Every structure is written in structure tokens, then in C-alpha cells.
Amino acid sequence: MARAxxxxxxxxxIGGTLAHVAAREELGDVILFxxxxxxxxxxxxxxxxxxxxxxxxxxxxxxxxxAGIAGADVCIVTAGVPRKPGMSRDDLLGINLKVMKAxxxxxxxHAPNAFVICITNPLDAMVWALQQFSGLPHNxxxxxxxxxxxxxFRYFLAEKTGVSVEDIHAWTLGGHGDDMVPMVRHSTxxxxxxxxxxxxxxxxxxxxxxxxxxxxxxxxxxxALLKTGSAYYAPAESAIAMATSYLKDKKRVLPCAVHLTxxxxxxxxxxxxxxxxxxGGVERVIEFPTNDEEKAMFAKSVDSVKGLMEACKGIEPxxx
Length: 320
Ligand code: A3D
Known about the structure:
Blueprint: E1 5-9, H1 13-24, E2 29-33, H2 39-48, H3 51-54, E3 60-63, E4 74-77, H4 93-110, E5 115-118, H5 123-134, E6 141-143, H6 146-161, E7 168-169, E8 172-173, E9 181-182, E10 188-189, E11 192-193, H7 194-199, H8 205-216, H9 218-226, H10 233-247, E12 252-261, E13 267-278, E14 281-285, H11 292-315
Parallel strand pairs: 1-2, 1-4, 2-3, 4-5, 5-6
Antiparallel strand pairs: 7-10, 8-9, 10-11, 12-13, 13-14
This protein binds 3-acetylpyridine adenine dinucleotide.
3-acetylpyridine adenine dinucleotide is lined by residues 9-15, 34-36, 39, 78-83, 92, 96, 99, 102-103, 119-121, 123, 144-145, 148, 176, 229-232, 235.
């Protein structure tokens, strides 16, 4: 069988890391696309020269023309600009919406059968716009945020409890903003829900509250440290997990920004929820039962996403 073809739209910090990981894991041949000449070519040649050391047989190519992504099975979109200290994700909207238009049209023309994973911020609004600009079916266009936010949550819980990250399952839902919703009651360490961990003395309620707060601000914490941009290792690994679930039909349950059609009482927008990702793209949305407090937090987060969608419509009236 021919190797899968993975197109990475945007060859910056996340795009380059995606290419590195995809090649190292032998996920498929990699096409790196960017508007800047030389960067995708240089990064792909550098990684290709590492394949004899990895021992993986994949081809890598850098391109500046959308014709180069023709026939891609997966497109991962990081094109646009990242945050700098003092900026919110929402500050990126004006620039990145224009980028999504160009990217969506490029995918529509050259890779209409691809499974598309958007990473560009502000995530929930950009993936919603990208789906419309590309015209691809909703089940084939998703956003990466929840896997990353949940990984941060899991890491902080592992650090606090002294339990392996492998035995911690944690979930963040809602929009990818600082009002995201870490699902404390549905997250577990060794099968025990977090409130039970507090009962058993693994951590205090104050420590758990601190972890929830740190998870919400996890992106900003890295931006403040790096000063020149935002996180890229964990975001790239998160998108690779989503692409792998699709390409290998693993049907993993991953928190992703997906198009809702009535689940969680919402429709017509993209927001973070757990979803089964397999060969059919988004195969099913998992609905967590929510109590009043969780419903209120989710509603606040969704309101932020709706506000960004309205701002996008103001800039690009073709969006519905
Ligand atoms: P960066 O290293 O600046 O890479 C972006 C790349 O996009 C650059 O190489 C640009 O040349 C390229 N680019 C700009 N315009 C276009 C265009 N029209 N077509 C093709 N390429 C273009 O940024 P990064 O890789 O660090 O981050 C990329 C995006 O991911 C940003 O919007 C970040 O805010 C976002 N991000 C999202 C998360 C989530 O969890 C959702 C996490 C971290 C970063």
C-alpha cells in the first residue's frame, strides 16, 4: 500500500516539529508548505537527512505552491501568527482569518479528500472558518486544542500525585481560551475521580484548584517564558495523536474542537468536546453529563467562541 501523505500548512515552530515527529514515527511522506521561500525546503531537507539515523523510510519535501499538497490524506494547519507576551489568542483573529481563507481555498483545490486538523489560533473560530473556506465535510475538519489542554492538566496532576501520566485521564472541554472547562469530576487518577483523590489525601482542594487554574493559563505560561512565540512541542505531539488515530483507524476518544449538531445543546459551531476519531474522521461525539456548575462554565466558554465567530463575520461576510 502507498504511504500516507501528510501536508503541513505552515512550516514554523509547530510545522517543523510536526514534520520531525511524523518522519520519526514513519507516519507517511511529509509535504511542508509555507509562503516563505526556503524555510519549508530547508526544514524538510534537514529532517530528510536525519531519516537514515532514525531508520525510517519516508520522503519529505518543502513547497511554496498549493499544487504540492495534491492528494494529501491529512493536512495539519499552523499557518498564521502566534502570540507574543501581552497578547491574547483573540488578538490574532484579524491576521489569521485571512490566512485561513487562503489555506481553505488551497485545500479545497488540491486536497479535498484530506482529514484537516487546524491548530491556528484563536482555534475554535479559525477551524469553523477554515471548514467554510475549504467546503470539506464537517466530520473531516477538526481543531486541536483539547488534547494539549488535557495533556497539560494530566502532567500537572502527575507531578502533584506522583502517579504515572499514563494512568491519568483528564478532560478539558469548551473553547480554547482561558475560560476552558477542566472536567474535574470526569478526570481520573488510577480510575479515581479527582474529588475522591482529595478525600484520600493525594492533594488538597486548594492544590487541585491551583492545577485547574494553571491548566487554563497553560498556554500563557509558556508564552511568558519563551517571549518570542508560543508552545510547539506539546501542540505538535497532540496533533500527531489525532492524525494517527485517523490514519490507523484507532478510534481513540480525544478532546477536539468539532462541529456540533445538537450535542451539549449546541449546533452550528465548533467547540471542544470528546470525540471518537477514526477512518471516518469524527465518528461520534461523547457527551459527558454536566451539573449546573459545569453547564455554567461551558456556557461562558461557548459565549467567548460565539463572540469570536461574530467578529469573523464582521471581517468576512461570506461566513455563516
Ligand atoms: P510560527 O512559528 O510563526 O509559524 C507560523 C508559520 O505560518 C510561519 O512559518 C509563517 O511563514 C506561516 N504563514 C503565515 N502566513 C501563511 C500563509 N498565508 N500560508 C502559509 N503559511 C503561512 O507559529 P507557530 O508554529 O508557533 O504557531 C502556529 C499557530 O498555532 C499560531 O496561530 C499559534 O497561536 C497556534 N497555536 C495553537 C495552539 C493550540 O493549542 C490551538 C497551541 C500553540 C500554538
